[in-house]
Each structure stands twice: as structure tokens, then as C-alpha cells.
Amino acid sequence: MQLDPGTVAEGRVTRVTDFGAFVQFENGETGLVHISQIAHSYVRSVSDFLQEGQTVEVKVLGRDERGRLDLSIKELLEEPEEMPRPRAIGKQSPQFESKLRSFMRDAKERGAGGERGRKRKR
Predict the structure, then answer these.
(1) Nearest CA to 59 among 40, 41, 74?
(2) Which of helix, strand or coil describes residue 23?
(3) Which CDD domains does the record match to this protein (predicted)?
């Protein structure tokens, strides 16, 4: 079995780590599915998605400079129609906005005359 970029192959998960999972193929080669290549959604823990001994289908993305296989499960999954949107930050209170403007104005005034009160080192 030739594992060229773009090849889709089935392998067995041999090790799960914090940064991804190692998958071994029937020809004996092993590659890494990085945590970012497991799912379209946020992956907090690889073990939530993959377990040792599990058979998975992966796509070969390529090889790194040392000849190791880079693999992806995400590339074989259908992309969600709409990615979840980040939560909106609530509007700040008018009091906060007023205090911030006052602070910025005072800081600007202090910055303009900031050299006056300092002693110079020689």
C-alpha cells in the first residue's frame, strides 16, 4: 500500500496523546493525526474522539521534513453548513463608557506634560 498525499486509508489508533493520535497502517507505517485535524469543531481532548485500538479512516496530507506521515480525519468529514459563531459580548454600560472616556482624556493630558516633573539622570 502506497501512502501518498491525498490517499484515503484505514488504520488503527496505536496511541493517544494531548496533541493528537498515532495511527498505524497494515504496511507498518505510522502517522499522526494532529488535534487540529480530528474534527471541524473545537477538540478539547483527543480521547473524547479517539481511543487506542479504534479503526479509523484517514486522509494522507503529506509527509514532514523527516518523512513522517501527516494525517487528517477532518478532511473526510462533511463540513458543517455554518460554523458556530462566537458569543457576542454584551454592550457596556453607559457609566463604564463615561469613565473610560474620562480616564483616556486624563491620561492624554498627563502624557503631554509628563516630562516636566521628572529629574534627568546624567
Answers:
(1) 74
(2) strand
(3) S1_RPS1_repeat_hs4 (cd05692)
Distance of CA 71 to the CA centre of its chain: 16
Q: C-alpha cell of 84? A: 458556530
38-85 pLDDT, tens digit per residue, is 999 999 999 999 999 999 999 999 998 888 899 999 999 988 777 666
pTM score of the predicted model: 0.64
Check: CB of residue 71 under 8 Å from CB of residue 20: no
Q: What domains does the chain contain, in order, with CATH numbers? A: 8-76 (2.40.50.140)
Rounded to 10 degrees, what is the CA torsion of 24, 29, 33, 37? -120
CB-based burial label for 64 (10 Å; 0-12, 13-18, 19+): exposed
